[in-house]
Amino acid sequence: MRVDCEGCAGCCIDWRPVSPIPLDHERRGPHAPLDDTYNLVPLTRDEIRNFVDAGFGDVLTPRLWEVSPGEGIEIDGTHVATIGGNPAFFVGMRKPPKPVAPFGLDRTWLRACAFLDPETLQCRIHDTDLYPAECSEYPGHNLTLDQETECERVEESYGGERLLDETPPDDQHGLLLGPHALGAKVFVHPDPARLDGVIDRLQSRSLTPEDRAEFVGVAVGSHPGSTEVDEVRARDARERTLKSASWAGELVDEWGSVAAALGSSATDAPHPDDVEVARGAPETLGWEAVQAKTESDD
């Protein structure tokens, strides 16, 4: 598997506002996400715990799914997908609006992963212990499951070649399906009564830090292969998440406060370094360094 990521980051941003074709692949099938986040990366329990341990619990956010009336459980007037009678969810990374210029476009306000450098379109936690397996192995899972990749969607809309080799890697670790995902990537909230009001806020993009920490705590307290939750471990993770004040969490709020309408010009936006690096975000290497490393490896 080989991909050309320079100037793209299609898998890290929500480029629906600038796409010439509809992008609705996450909303096909009977279980549509309750949020409207594009390409939300599901993290494993261990990855979520590592984010909390590193002080980045404030960057995490949940995803739940809507089902037809009569299925699942009703919370805030919405029927939510369940496992064993309780709400099912996974946890991903928040995507604030950022001034980015993918696919040769001018700088535009688009939602992007909190860890994406808006200037270089490189990940600030790449090659660190926090880099999620789902990201490092993308689009390998899609290729293994014979599903369209974001690389191919970008090619269809903006031309060029992004997916250079369609052979999936043999050593994928993050592909958890069926029962193997339970408690490891898909979690079950043990007490729906604690979610009153949360589903409404999730759908209106107004989750509170307490809301997000509730799901992070349950995920960290979960047992792989089970719906059981260790409440002591969950409470500890919840409390530490609420105490998080990371540079990544701060920039989510900062970009949100200065962003214009999604899809609009961001030529007058603050320089990313003034918002992100100034708050402690590590600088990225740039694509020349990546190319040099690739050539030396070859």
Average residue pLDDT: 91
Structural class category: alpha+beta
Quaternary: single chain
Main sheet, how many strands, which sense, barrel?
4 strands, antiparallel
As for the number of domains, it is: 1
Number of strands: 13
Low-confidence stretches: none
Task: Please indicate the percent range of residues in DSSP E strands (runs of 2 or more).
Answer: 5-15%
Q: How many angstroms does the end-to-end distance come to?
A: 15 Å
Protein name: Zinc/iron-chelating domain-containing protein
Organism: Haloferax profundi
Region (Disordered): 263-298
Could you describe the 3D structure shown?
This protein is α+β, with helices and mostly antiparallel strands and 298 residues long. The protein has one domain (2-283). Helices cover 29% and strands 14% of the residues. The chain has helices at residues 45-53, 133-136, 140-144, 150-158, 198-203, 209-221, 231-243, 247-258, 272-275, 287-297, and strands at 2-3, 13-14, 32-33, 60-63, 65-66, 73-75, 78-80, 82-83, 86-93, 97-100, 108-112, 163-165, 187-188. The strands form five sheets. Strands 4, 8, 9 and 13 form a four-stranded antiparallel β-sheet that branches. A three-stranded antiparallel β-sheet has the order 2-11-10. Strands 1-12 form a two-stranded antiparallel sheet. β8 (82-83) and β9 (86-93) form a beta hairpin. α1 crosses α6 and α6 runs antiparallel to α7 (231-243). The longest helix is centred in the C-terminal third of the chain and has 13 residues, at 209-221. The two termini are 15 Å apart. The relative contact order is 0.19. The mean pLDDT is 91.
